[in-house]
Write a structure and sequence with these properties.
The protein has 145 residues and is an alpha/beta fold. It is built from four helices and seven strands; from the N terminus they run βββββαβααβα. The strands form two sheets. Strands 3-2-1-6-7 form a five-stranded mixed β-sheet. A two-stranded antiparallel ribbon has the order 4-5. Helix 1 crosses helix 2. It comes from Roseovarius litorisediminis.
Length: 145
């Protein structure tokens, strides 16, 4: 019988990696080839632009948006695409996402329905810098490591 493979995505706004649990008593292992980095935010000037009204002589400020927020959204979608490809290849059965609240929210929006159905737990905390041996304590309630 094939063991149930659980991937744990550890993400912040700049980097994401995956650790795997291959069944009870197997512990966690880092998947070296499953690490991604975000592209740097390219942006706009810090000053709002000026727009001219087509209906008269008035002008108004134009919000340029937040380049970092846009870069974060793009990165969350990039991670979701990688995960969707791995799920389609049956590389994992279950998924846990551990990320700070902001990035976790962006990840939720980026997940496809099939990925959402694979999610068995979410941890709204950035655990990307936690050593592997201490990471298990954060996951005990979700998976039997």
């Amino acid at each position: 019988m094939k063991p149930i493979v659980t991937w744990v995505v550890l993400a912040d706004a700049r980097n994401a990696s995956v650790v795997v649990n291959s069944g009870p008593g197997k512990g966690l292992a880092v998947l070296e080839d499953k690490a991604w980095s975000a592209e740097p935010a390219t942006g706009f000037s810090s000053e709002a632009g000026m727009g001219h009204s087509s209906a008269g002589p008035g002008v108004s400020a134009v919000d340029q948006g937040d380049p970092q927020e846009h870069a974060d959204q793009v990165f969350a979608k990039q991670i979701a695409r990688h995960l969707e490809t791995a799920l389609a290849k049956k590389d994992f059965d279950r998924l846990v996402i551990a990320s700070g609240p902001h990035m976790l929210g962006l990840m939720r929006k980026a997940l496809t329905p099939s990925l959402k159905s694979a999610v068995v737990g979410e941890i709204p905390k950035d655990l990307s810098d936690v050593p592997l041996d201490r990471l298990q304590t954060h996951l005990d309630d979700i998976i039997a490591t």
